[in-house]
Amino acid sequence: MSDKHVLIIDDEDDIREVAQVSLELMAGWHISTAESSQAGIAKAKTQRPDAILLDVMLPDMDGPTTFRMLQGDPETSDIPVILLTAKVQATDQRKFADLGVSAVIAKPFDPVLLADQVASCLGWELPTPT
């Protein structure tokens, strides 16, 4: 099991579950989940994950606002954030990139490729299959 810890913040149960199972099985990472921005920010502060997968469209606070809050807090400002979004228009992609996030992954994502995408974005090595 890898020592990497990823926090998934998404309000859709199915997305959280698929991403969690995918990253646990494909990479062996420890996964935590949160279903709202507020819960995600609280978990980020207490659990200090190595990275956060953050949905752009959340009911309580959108992903970009959540990202700015994480960046504005010294406890969480150094945690890389990857946005998950169904907004794949070029203008949306540029807007997200201008925020300073580590990467943007389009939804729906391929569960088989998700660990590779995250590892590639963050420069992490995936464990070799045994």
The geometry reads as globular
Fraction of residues in β-strands: 15-25%
Gap between N and C termini:
12 Å
Instruction: Give the overall pLDDT as a whole number.
Output: 93
Number of strands: 5
The low-pLDDT segments are none
The ordered string of helix (H) and strand (E) elements is EHEHEHEHEH
Radius of gyration: 14 Å
Given the structure, what is the number of helices? 5
Helix fraction? 40-55%
Strand order of the largest sheet: 2-1-3-4-5
- Major pleated sheet: 5 strands, parallel
Q: What kind of oligomer do you see?
A: single chain
| SS-derived structural category | alpha/beta
What is the fold's blueprint, element by element?
Elements: E1 5-9, H1 13-27, E2 30-34, H2 37-47, E3 51-55, H3 63-72, E4 81-85, H4 90-99, E5 103-106, H5 111-122
Helix pairs in contact: 1-5, 2-3
Descriptive report:
The structure is a single chain. This protein is of the alpha/beta class and 130 residues long. It is 45% helix and 18% strand. The protein has helices at residues 13-27, 37-47, 63-72, 90-99, 111-122; strands spanning 5-9, 30-34, 51-55, 81-85, 103-106. α1 (13-27) packs across α5.
